[in-house]
């Protein structure tokens, strides 16, 4: 926790917070080894960040006085369309991309996504939220990403994808063997599509290209999805 | 395995290989569901890559006829100086950076590296080699990285670091709060220093800066080491 993320429930006054859940308390006691008087970085979910002073801590709660005055870091202007990874990689990928500042994530079914992945408990709202929180706490951010699940490829690409694109949006599909190298430091909003292990099938690539997406590659090397996601976001951002 | 990496022991003729170890055999049978006649990508450790035809497969061995004709993908010209991560993150980081094409990795002790990490079985030569192989198999590469362990910061930075730098080498230390953003698409050879969770201490940063390193940051966000490593390599490469 490089930032303690406060929910509305944690605020007992506009400048005072009380943390009572076991996860954060344990982290404060065991990792931070926090003692009264310590200064830490805190932020309100969806809002400002700043510093807080630990006023009391025991086995049940920790109380902070707050001076919250900064905006959170700017978001990465990328909507990530990610073929649903297998559950363990999903968990890590959600943390990575949240830490990198992505605010819109669509998990997409594609031909090479195993259908069983959609049954994973990792897709439960509370599980996903836990990984997003870890990403925000890591990166010192407060703005929760939205995560949407699209279990049918064709209706998504044909019906809903056009509505997610503004005229300014640059659609990019990352796929080995595309002609162009991934562009760098793109200033427009981006819609970035990344396939599953094994890649998109040809039909899917064609659907994205017909929707105006540009195909890009990251070189000859085949990367794991979690490596590729971070590498693409770092290069585009 | 996007590539089956063959050691000298696996070659039974210049154009014929036999794989007998349980890990690769299991992968061929259970993941690839390989059957006689299948064409696959293979490569010789330290050498060429190409295609092979599966000539036979059973519980004890798989035999391939080979047409090896391509050079492996070009390496990333970055020597990575990585403060030793905790064991689980080390394993993943070795795979990521190998897949990204790094060929020289120095694991370094710094003030905020827990001393106990140096006792981890993950640092055994055979364990490290396994992770490097996984990275090569993932990225379809054959050139094994070298991994050096430096358990004393000061003698390394003062005595050995200068010998690792050529006049053309650009030294870069990634550290939150540095003035310059990480440069993009650097063409010179790079020596890239990345700190542990919690970062380098001021003294260490100063040592690198005195050695001619340039301090760079990746933005306001604090990233986990494994995310930062991939993001930095993607941006520099």
UniProtKB/TrEMBL annotation, chains A, B:
- Which molecular function terms from Gene Ontology are attached? rRNA (uridine-N3-)-methyltransferase activity
**Keyword Signal included in the entry's annotation:** no
Where in the numbering of this chain does the Ribosomal RNA small subunit methyltransferase E methyltransferase domain appear? 73-236
Instruction: Please give a single GO biological process term from the UniProt record.
Output: rRNA base methylation
Q: Which Pfam families match?
A: Methyltrans_RNA
Q: What does this protein do?
A: Specifically methylates the N3 position of the uracil ring of uridine 1498 (m3U1498) in 16S rRNA. Acts on the fully assembled 30S ribosomal subunit.
Could you tell me what this protein is called? Answer: Ribosomal RNA small subunit methyltransferase E
- Organism from which the protein derives: Cobetia crustatorum
């Amino acid at each position: 926790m490089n930032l303690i993320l406060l929910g509305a429930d944690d605020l007992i006054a506009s400048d005072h917070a009380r943390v009572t859940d076991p996860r954060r308390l344990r982290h404060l006691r065991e990792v931070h080894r926090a003692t009264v008087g310590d200064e830490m970085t805190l932020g309100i979910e969806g809002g400002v960040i700043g510093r807080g002073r630990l006023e009391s801590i025991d086995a049940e709660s920790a109380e902070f006085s707050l001076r919250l005055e900064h905006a959170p870091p700017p978001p990465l202007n990328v909507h990530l369309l990610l073929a649903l990874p297998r559950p363990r990689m999903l968990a890590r990928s959600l943390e990575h991309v949240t830490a990198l500042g992505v605010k819109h994530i669509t998990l997409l079914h594609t031909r090479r996504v195993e259908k069983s992945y959609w049954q994973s408990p990792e897709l439960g709202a509370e599980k996903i939220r836990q990984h997003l929180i870890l990403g925000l706490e890591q990166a010192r951010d407060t703005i929760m990403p939205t995560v949407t699940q699209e279990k049918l490829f064709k209706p998504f690409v044909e019906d809903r994808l056009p509505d997610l694109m503004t005229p300014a949006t640059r659609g990019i599909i990352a796929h080995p063997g595309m002609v162009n190298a991934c562009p760098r430091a793109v200033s427009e909003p981006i819609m970035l599509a990344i396939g599953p292990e094994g890649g998109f099938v040809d039909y899917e690539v064609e659907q994205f290209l017909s929707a105006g997406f540009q195909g890009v590659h990251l070189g000859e090397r085949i990367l794991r999805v979690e490596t590729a996601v971070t590498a693409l976001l770092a290069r585009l951002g």
